[in-house]
Amino acid sequence: MPKSDTSEIIIDQGCQVCALTGHDDNTCKVNQCSHCKRFGHSLNDCRNRPCEHCGKRGHASANCHLIMVCDDCGRKGHAREQCEHVTLICRFCTIQGHILEECPTLLNMVCRRCQQTGHTTKKCKHCAFCRVWGHARLDSDGKITCPTLLDVICPKCEEVGHTAKFCKCCRFCRSKEHTQYNERGDIICPELLATECRNCGEMGHTQRVCSNESNALICN
Questions:
Q1: Residues 6+ away with beta carbon under 8 Å from 53
Q2: Maximum CA extent, the chain
Q3: CA-derived radius of gyration, the chain
Q4: Which of 3, 50, 81, 195 is buried deepest, with most CB atoms within 10 A?
Q5: Range of the domain at 198
Q6: Percent share of the chain, pLDDT over 70
Q7: For residue 10, what pLDDT is reported?
Q8: Residues with Cβ < 8 Å from 118, sequence gap 6 or more?
Q9: Per-residue pLDDT for 154 more than 80?
Q10: Is it the case that residue 26 has pLDDT exceeding 50?
Q11: Each residue of 89-137: pLDDT tens digit?
């Protein structure tokens, strides 16, 4: 059969893209991609066009895994077949099957500071200093975040950001390089260690805190 007769038969059978007669699939002007100029798909379904979300080729932007929502866990980034939610282990209760944000134990836990549920005292956003909800006294690095505390002036060292109770300057000599006592309660202030008590004559304390009662009575 001549080639022209074969083309006429294909044309008469109709286009498989638009189901109309008068042309074949290769010459169909319906549903032509404006990016790759090929037929059979639109611009949104073009696999040669970079994805609007991840920038990769090979898939349409509507099918990108970054916007794909899992039917199992409700999170973006994967399909239900790729979900690893059931194999996850909670960082709070160490039970498999849920994550920390959805932990039933944590959601029912009552915070000892604000008496609300859903978080621990460590993660509480109820400030322990100003009692205002929305921020903690310290952040995870130990830095002060409370705006009220940041404006407080210490009466001992006259610096801002702490009270006299948490002042790190020495109560005896007012030095900012050391405290009066260490964590065990031993005197570490050099000036106090070199001070002689006028009550008992011993070094390391003053007459005001002297525990020698007999000499205190004599002196008085």
A1: 61, 64, 66, 67
A2: 137
A3: 39
A4: 195
A5: 157-220
A6: 74
A7: 45
A8: 106, 107, 109, 111
A9: yes
A10: yes
A11: 787 888 887 777 788 888 888 888 778 888 887 778 778 788 787 787 7
How far apart are the C-alpha atoms of 82 and 90, rounded to whole Å? 19
CA distances from 83 to 6, 76, 160 (A): 51, 10, 51
- At position 193, the amino acid (one-letter code) is L
- Show the tokens assigned to 98: 């849920």
In a domain, 182, yes or no: yes
Residues 6+ apart with CB under 8 A from 125: 119, 133, 134, 135, 136
Does residue 85 form part of some domain? no
In-domain check, residue 7: no
Contacts of 104 by beta carbon, 8 Å cutoff, 6+ apart: 98
Whichever domain contains 216, its CATH number is 4.10.60.30
Q: Say how many CA atoms lie within 13 Å of 34 toward its Cβ.
A: 2
Distance CA(118)–CA(162), nearest Å, equals 29
For residue range 157-216, list pLDDT tens digits in order.
Answer: 788 888 887 887 887 887 878 888 887 888 888 988 898 888 888 888 888 888 876 444
Please count the structural domains in the chain: 1
Helix, coil or strand: residue 217: helix
Contact 42, 55 (CB under 8 A): no
Asked whether residue 42 is domain-assigned, the answer is no
- C-alpha triplet 207, 201, 184: angle, nearest 5°: 65
Dist. CA 13–CA 66, nearest whole Å: 42
